[in-house]
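Researcher: Hi, I'm a grad student and pretty new to this. My advisor asked me to get structures for two proteins we've been looking at. I'm not sure of the right format, so I'll just paste the first sequence and hope you can take it from there.
Model: That works fine. Here's the first sequence with its structure tokens right after it:
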Amino acid sequence: MPVKPSQSEEEYFAREEALKKQKLALEQTKKMLERERRELKDLHFMHCPKCGMDLHAIVFRGVEIDRCFHCHGTWLDAGELEKLAIHEKKQRGAVVRSVLNIFEPEKGQKRK
């Protein structure tokens, strides 16, 4: 005659089965999110965030930057602004000053 498992044994195996299913679901979710992230990157890689047209890598003052020739947007990757700033510091900072002037109010004008 087969021995029926005790209630505590049934609970143990049910818990183990639930944990296995939960772990599998988490792994599937992680794989799905990674796949979606890759697909999103592939969809947007080297496309202008403003107009969606192709970006082209060009070298500007020794730094490779991304340029959209449709809307004329210029996009910098991480660290590229700092590289340009270092280059400009060596060249007396003309471009950096002009960029900073964009964000500073003109003399005699108050910030809103």
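Researcher: Oh nice, that was easy. Here's the second one.
Model: And its structure:
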Amino acid sequence: MSVIDVVKWEAGDDVYAWRYPSQELGTWTQLIVAESQEAVLVKEGRMLGPFRAGRHSLDTNNIPFIRDFVKIPTGGRTPFTAEVWFVNKAIPLDVKWGTGDPIQLQDPVYGIMLPVRAFGQYGVQVEDTKKFLQKLVGTIPCFTREQLTSYFRGVILTIAKTAIAQHLVRDKISLLEIGADLEPLSNSLRERMLPELEQFGLRLVKFFVTSINAPESDPAVAQLKRALAKRAEMNILGYTYQQERSFDTLETAAGNPGSMQSGLMGAGIGIGLGAGIGSAIAPAMAPIVQNLQPAPVTCPKCRAVAAPNNPFCANCGARVAPPPQPETVCPSCGKGMPAAAKFCSECGKSRAARCAACAAELSPGAKFCFQCGARVSEASS
């Protein structure tokens, strides 16, 4: 196989590391390294370089230490074998990342489990060429952007899940409102990703979270959005959920007068209508309640205003309320009744005894009727 005269980059733009296909080199071979690239020679596991942008002749005069590296004598045109690796040090900023399957997280504001998806992009740069080739590329002849994305997908998703959950819980932000916090969340994720990439000779230049959302078709998401839309509507119209339920109850009852009369009156207005109607009718009920309150009493002695339920004046001690009437017992039913009452309020019968012969009212303790003369003990009832 002939010795290669010129070795240069021949890979695509989406390649991070590329191995030149031939190893047949010579001390006259020209190594051409473009801007934003570096090259290294690899022989028997040892690396020589990196060679930065420019044209490099691989002879022992230009590169004295190549003599010990490939074990060739000084001077002359000597062929040798070695691998040539090119590393692209440009900074692509459009490396995509995203969650393949939604992450189940509990919304810290509404307490409902929601499936969360996160998407973004990042940019990396090869900072240490030798470390990058040794720890990440290995013996792969071509290391592309797709391979880098696949390799770091697991690391990014693990860190992203934890960071998103902690950010939501710490700041009490709903998943549906996290769009306003994408910038601080992106910075937090970048700080956590830096040491993960540095160990492979990579520098994380940028890291963005471009979207965090939940599938619209998920039942929990649809239910939460309906509830939020309803709450926004009630805030605009100026009423609460309890008031809306009260309005619904009244509307249903108005369509069924029988139910309105028996159901609401039987069960009680307070239970059926709730706090919303109570607050609405409170101003109207105030004058009625005020009229039901007992009127203040004026003391007949000192003319001071006394409490309605206080029988004595707090200013002079005079009685302002009539003394309570003594009670007696109805002779017919045995219930208590005022002593001055003639008829029992329980059974309706007259309290006074009457003559059984002429029905005349008898005096207390009388033994004979003063009207007809009949004996009370024999003729009275």
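Researcher: Is there anything I should tell my advisor about the second?
Model: You could mention this: Residues 325-381 form one domain.
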